[in-house]
Write the structure tokens for this entry.
Amino acid sequence: MAQTTILIARELLQICGLLEITGTATAGAATTLTDSGLANIYADDAPNKWRIFIVSGLGVGQEKLITDYVSSTGVFTVASAWTTNPDSTSVYMVYKTFAFADLLRFIRIAVETLRRSHLLPTLDESVALATDTYEYSFPSGLVGVKEIYREKV
């Protein structure tokens, strides 16, 4: 997964008030991620049923459901084993309620909505076609071509 997508998702979670915890793991095992810097900051079980996603470092791209949190140690227990156990290079974020795949779907919907409302179709007839010419320069201000129509003569 592209880092740009992860950064956009993180920003949207923050804007929506769903991003609760971010940090760097101090350790990890088959079904846990530990951040000893969180010890006694959040109450026991506070993030249970939230999601944890590894943003970068070892295990990047993995997402799990949190089933237990121990405040005194900063240990998150997840519902199923990590494919790759996190370690002290694993940067993570914890957010509420929905899967990261849903957030990516929301981003795609938002981008498509913006595309439809802000990228209006433009007809540009300034390029004259020439016989046996297959490459043309874009007119200034034109950034892409969606369709080319050929008139029958």
User: Anything to note?
Assistant: The radius of gyration is 24 Å. Residues 54 and 92 are 4 Å apart (CA to CA). The first strand starts at residue 19 and ends at 24. The mean pLDDT is 81.
